[in-house]
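User: quick one
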Amino acid sequence: MFSQTAEYALRAVVWLADHPDTSLTREQLAGPTRVPADYLAKVMHSLARAGVVQAQRGRKGGFTLTKPADQLTILDVINAVDPVRRIRTCPLALKGHTHRLCPLHKRLDDALVTMEQAFSQTRISDLSEHNSPVRALCEFAETVHA
Amino acid sequence: MFSQTAEYALRAVVWLADHPDTSLTREQLAGPTRVPADYLAKVMHSLARAGVVQAQRGRKGGFTLTKPADQLTILDVINAVDPVRRIRTCPLALKGHTHRLCPLHKRLDDALVTMEQAFSQTRISDLSEHNSPVRALCEFAETVHA
DNA sequence: CATATTATGGACATGTTTATCCACATATCC
DNA sequence: GGATATGTGGATAAACATGTCCATAATATG
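Assistant: Done. Structure below.
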């Protein structure tokens, strides 16, 4: 239901949130989050364009969150890489039926709204180890160390 | 968020529900629902295998719903062609972390549960013209007639 | 300024979904 | 049984998502 890209983006952002005030390189992110490093480069680029992270080139470069993790939601991340596509007009190519959806597409869109709400209500900081009994990223950090 | 295939399947099933006790051929379904006829063949086949519709070959053949539309939900249709893939184990390949999800994947799975519930609570009959002020399939029927 | 490090951006490869086409099996009608 | 209508199944293509590779630009450090 979610794209692989969105999954990758969320893992990277959560990892960044767990390492505040630190610039992490693509490689440093790719390892613990288990995202293909070369593909992660593209994902991080999307996040940078969307203003979720700030990129810094050159030596000592890397990525940091542009906002504190408690001001960043799951929805922000998902919309940056793979926006929820609401159903606003009839998917069938109809004449003047753009203003009101039929029951089917109304229900489907309602489901999308519900998901958007769930995503917008969860802050990235809620996913950190400090704020949850179970550590984010399935406690992956415990199984690997640089 | 939903696959094109699921969208097609829902259109076809809603159309079938609006024409009860009638066997509709692939062509008769493809027209008003605007689904590519050849692709619809495959979608209907999936629905038949899942027991949502019954297929009848040969002359005067076609498709009918196996159950009354008020005993069939959106979830039944979606699961037939493009099942909601719940997150039951950690997407990161971890050792003994299958029993409990981290906060991130717990939240994502919660969102999936919410969607499943929304889908299972809507019956196909709820989408028919008789039970709704706005006709199903965006009143497409009004714009085309055989 | 030279070098090493790092993100950027494009080309390319692979995989999956969506779509098309056609031969075949099955059923109805005469 | 012959002719016609229909779903079934496989091969193939097109579009898109995912993944890999490499040259380039930018930045810090010495």
